[in-house]
Amino acid sequence: MSDKQEALFENIVVIGLGLIGSSLTRGIKQRGLAVHLFGYDGSAKVRQEARDIDIGAQIVDELAPTVSKADLVILAVPVGAMANLAAQVCPLIKPGAILSDVGSVKQSIIEAVSPLMPENTHFVPGHPVAGTEFSGPSSGFGHLFEDRWCILTPVEGGDQQAINSLKLLWQQLGSQVECMSAAHHDIVLAITSHIPHLIAYNIVGTAADLEDVTKSEVIKFSAGGFRDFTRIAASDPVMWRDVFMNNKEAVLEMLGRFTEDLTQLQRHIRRDDGQALQDLFSRTRAIRRSIVEAGQETQEADFGRTKG
Ligand code: NAP
Fold this sequence. Notes:
Strand content: 5-15%
CATH architecture of the largest domain: 3-Layer(aba) Sandwich
CATH superfamily of the largest domain: NAD(P)-binding Rossmann-like Domain
Strand order of the largest sheet: 3-2-1-4-5-6-7-8
Largest sheet: 8 strands, mixed
CATH topology of the largest domain: Rossmann fold
Number of helices: 12
Distance between the termini: 16 Å
Order of helices and strands: EHEHEHEHEHEEHEHHHHHH
Number of strands: 8
Radius of gyration: 21 Å
Bound molecules: NADP nicotinamide-adenine-dinucleotide phosphate
Number of domains: 2
Helix content: 40-55%
């Protein structure tokens, strides 16, 4: 099946060629959304790997010549690396060009990048709500963003034409696009993504530290629920360190709520309040059903996730 569509940009450069960056280059290439597509990564080893496996972009060793002719530059590096990278990239962006990013936290990136944008250039921050626990160029795939949401968090006074162009790019990659403020994004993602990752990291860490249950027992009996947490807890350590360092307030706020609810559950169990437990578990089962109905998950027992 050919996914080819009309090119939306003459020159696109994607910086950071890991899971998200290399999925973007593959998706853009497969659909013909750029006339010329370039990729750059800070690591020479990653650049070589990207060349060897062919991620759909021409891999360059230098940023300046490519960025200065790009109509769209997409930063796909860990959140903590965005500010330094933007300091390098922003002075090179040509007038009229768009800079975007795919970072999982939005306010801190906007604060760091916006002041660096030259006159007559447009910053349109974005976050594809799609991913896997894998990293690196070989983990990417062109249909990662299909039937997923991409959130754009336009900056104050942002250029509507630039926002529309980026929206169209994500739509052509198969995503549905929603615009919201960066502050709202960071709260929503704290509960839907950041706290679940923290809980997974915590439960797997707790199990690893237990003294009266052996490690081999944890592994042997993991199908009881534990293994689903281990998938999330296998996510990239650098990426997730940066998420928590950069979305501190929203995460701490949601964590406070979560802790209160956990304490209440503890109370229900201590007081033999089976009805309260059953009521909650029925409500949560309905939420799972709505996610499946919305096409964001399948009913399959392995969670239906494929590596692509
Ligand atoms: P990844 O697989 O680890 O790839 C990141 C790549 O960026 C690595 O190759 C890294 O090289 C490179 N890099 C780091 N600093 C750089 C710099 N200053 N200049 C150029 N390249 C640099 O990470 P990812 O999962 O694709 O995540 C990328 C971004 O997407 C993050 O901001 C993340 O929050 C966001 N995001 C991730 C997901 C997800 O599920 N993974 C989903 C949505 C959004 P080294 O390894 O050598 O440092």
